[in-house]
Give the backbone structure.
Amino acid sequence: MSRRYDSRTTIFSPEGRLYQVEYAMEAIGNAGSALGILAADGVVLVGEKKVTSKLLQSSRSAEKMYKIDSHLACAVAGIMSDANILINTARLHAQRYALSYQEAIPVEQLVQSLCDTKQGYTQFGGLRPFGVSFLFGGWDKKHGFQLYMSDPSGNYGGWKAAAVGANSQAAQSMLKQDYRDGMTREEAVALALKVLSKTMDSTSLTAEKLELAEVFLQPGTGEVQYQVCSPDAMGKLLAKAGLTQPAPDA
Amino acid sequence: MSIFEYNGSAVVAMVGKNCFAIASDRRLGVQLQTVATDFQRVFKIHGKLYLGLSGLATDAQTLYQRLVFKHKLYQLREERDMKPETFASLVSALLYEKRFGPYFCQPIIAGLGEDNEPFICTMDCIGAKELAKDFVVSGTASESLYGACESMYKPNMEPEELFETISQALLSSVDRDCLSGWGGYVLVVTPTEVQERVLKGRMD
């Protein structure tokens, strides 16, 4: 019965729901998960890579993590092609701000502008919403380190720890139990790996299936740094957390 | 009076042995009056690529800001720094876009390429590239700079000797130009380090 209210993104159903937006969130629920944790000295973003075929030859350094500007990065869950469009928009927006004001864009402003774009696709144009949820991690002078989560509806919120993608509900409740204020980056990484190991579908956790990125202040210069963890370092972290298991023969 | 001579400027770059040096004067004037003696004309694009902009100061600043915009997006997309040759093409294209209402600047691009090969080039205000193997000059003191560089330059100089040569060439040339001077700023870039130095010359 409510099917007749599904196909147009721009109308409400009688129950006051936007079905297309909800279907978009369904699509994200099937995608590889991503976790973000706010630590006292940085933001940690961890992602689960869904496709790990040996035949895959990627030119990019990371599949789920994207740098938006020198002080801002994001993790992605959902339809990658939709994500690419939005990330490009975000990058342009950050640079236009820097060109006008000769200052780095504050994190919330960038998130808000991206969410305004996403909202547009739920209200006019007759186009479907973007099937992506983002976890933004960044630093600015006013609020220091921040973590934001945004979804296809264009809503966003600031979080201390958040999860998107597959099993995000389970991950979120685990994070709620174990998160402590004032965690260091190392503790946050360990927590993220622990939560992911419990919520990920695969039987073993190997470095190829995960991506880790951190946003922190460089100790010497105080500049904001975005660093993606190398596969070797990833392997060591997993071993340290006691989470490595022998990988099944591919 | 020409718009290119409104603020006064002198920029020069030289190639050495596996290194390059880029230098500029520090005067910012409004025609005959000196307004600043610490004006920056040489800008960093990335660790091994520098841009010197002579001519109208406001255009130099705006051009630099627009180029940073483009380079940052390039870095994000391609996950690497721009090669000097590519950057020179970018600057040239940007200038030609304003063919009939140009930026009143003459850029000098100096960088270390893929194998740390030094690369320098200059172009006019509408993007005509001029590659050189030895030195490039621009600004109100350019005629004196041409003469000084031609006589003082020799190929394959080490960083210290290159620094001495470019500093002498700069200071002696700006002394013959009333619109540039008030000290100098010299950057010598090798594959492993970048040395910045401020020169004290005739403060007039």
In short: The mean pLDDT of chain B is 96. The helical segments of chain B are 57-78, 84-97, 142-152, 159-174. Residues 57-78 of chain B form the longest helix (22 residues). The two ends of chain B are 21 Å apart (CA to CA).
